[in-house]
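Example 9 (inverse folding). The structure is encoded as follows.
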C-alpha cells in the first residue's frame, strides 16, 4: 500500500498535519488536496483539538500544483476536476491554522500558506507565485490574498515576474509572522499554537472569523460582523471567568465554553 498523502500527529490540544509527498516536494495533486480537506475537516470536528499546525517537512512546504497532472489539460478538464471545491473546504475550517514553512512555498503551496491564519517560516524558506513562467496565472487565491497581505505593488511584481521572495523579505513585507532558524520552524509554530490554544476557544474562533471576513469585504461589513461576534462572547463562561480573574488579580481558568 502507498503512503498516506497527509499524516496527522495529535498533540492535544494541538494537532500537526504533515503533507507527505516528499518525492514531489509536496506538489498539490487533486488527491492530496482531497486528503488535506478531509483531514482538516475531521480535526475541525474533534473537540479536543484547538489549533492546527500545517507542516510540509524539511525540504518543502509545497512546491505548487502537480504540473504533470495539468500539462495536457484543457479548461473543461480543469473545471471538471473541481479542485476549487477542495480549496473551499480547506478555507472553511474555523479553527486556527498555523503554517510552518521550510523550503519552498511556490504556487499552490504559497496559496495554501496564505490561506492559513499565521505563518512561521525558516530562514531559508522562499515564497513565490511562479505560474506566469508556465503560461498561466495563480488560480487559488494567489492574486487576491497576496495583494491583501503585502500590498498590490509587491504582489504585482511577484505575480508578473514569478520570482521568489526570501523569508526575511517576506517578513518585512508583512507576509509572515515569524522567521526562525530552519530547524526551529515546527517547534516555534507549536509554541505559538500553544499560546493560542490557551486563550478562550469561543472568543478565538469568533475573533478569527471577524478578522478574516472583514479583511475580504468592505469595512462596514467587517465592522458589523465584528460587533455581532463581540456581543456573542458575552454569552460564554470564559468571558465571565476572564473578567472576574482580571478584577480579582489572578490567572483565568478558561473552560472552552
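The amino acid assigned to each position is listed next.
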Amino acid at each position: 500500500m502507498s503512503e498516506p498523502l497527509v499524516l496527522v500527529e495529535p498533540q492535544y490540544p494541538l494537532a500537526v498535519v504533515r503533507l507527505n509527498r516528499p518525492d514531489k516536494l509536496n506538489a498539490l495533486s487533486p488527491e492530496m488536496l482531497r486528503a488535506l480537506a478531509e483531514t482538516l475537516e475531521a480535526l475541525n470536528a474533534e473537540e479536543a483539538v484547538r489549533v492546527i499546525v500545517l507542516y510540509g517537512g524539511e525540504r518543502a512546504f509545497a512546491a505548487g500544483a502537480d504540473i504533470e497532472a495539468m500539462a495536457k489539460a484543457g479548461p473543461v478538464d480543469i473545471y471538471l476536476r473541481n479542485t476549487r471545491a477542495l480549496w473551499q473546504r480547506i478555507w472553511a475550517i474555523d479553527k486556527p491554522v498555523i503554517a510552518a514553512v521550510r523550503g519552498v512555498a511556490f504556487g499552490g503551496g504559497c496559496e495554501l500558506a496564505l490561506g492559513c491564519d499565521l505563518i512561521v517560516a525558516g530562514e531559508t524558506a522562499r515564497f513565490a507565485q511562479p505560474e506566469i513562467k508556465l503560461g498561466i496565472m495563480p488560480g487559488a487565491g494567489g492574486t487576491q490574498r497576496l495583494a491583501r497581505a503585502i500590498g498590490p505593488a509587491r504582489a504585482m511584481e511577484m505575480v508578473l515576474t514569478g520570482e521568489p521572495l526570501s523569508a526575511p523579505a517576506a517578513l518585512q513585507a508583512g507576509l509572515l509572522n515569524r522567521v526562525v532558524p530552519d530547524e526551529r520552524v515546527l517547534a516555534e509554530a507549536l509554541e505559538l499554537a500553544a499560546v493560542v490554544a490557551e486563550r478562550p476557544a469561543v472568543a478565538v474562533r469568533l475573533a478569527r472569523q471577524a478578522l478574516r471576513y472583514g479583511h475580504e469585504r468592505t469595512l462596514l461589513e467587517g465592522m458589523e460582523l465584528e460587533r455581532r461576534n463581540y456581543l456573542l462572547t458575552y454569552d460564554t463562561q470564559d468571558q465571565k471567568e476572564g473578567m472576574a480573574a482580571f478584577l480579582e488579580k489572578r490567572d483565568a481558568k478558561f473552560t472552552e465554553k
